[in-house]
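Q: Hi! First time doing this. I have a protein sequence and I read that you can turn it into a structure. Is that right? Here it is:
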Amino acid sequence: MAGLFVSLLGTTTLTQAQSLQVKQWAASCSACHGTDGYSEGGMASLAGQSKAELIKKMNEYKTGKRTASIMHQLSKGYTDEQIEQISAYFAALPAEKPVAKTK
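A: Yes, that's right. Below is the predicted 3D structure, encoded as structure tokens:
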């Protein structure tokens, strides 16, 4: 039983570390696309877009089919797995930025 607990604890720790890694990759998008992918104008918001659409766009930048001032260069720095994980992160967020609750 103790072995199962340690195994589950290790899995949870690994999952948390992976989640933090994906958030770190996604944070690099904030300079242009806003915190958590909610653009304040100028660039498209990433939050709430479909995972498939985000992957498609990133791959188009990566191959040169789609051009932009910097995305065609940045996209080449990510593996297909990283693009999939980042896309899943943004797709899981609501399309509209949640309003902060005041007390």
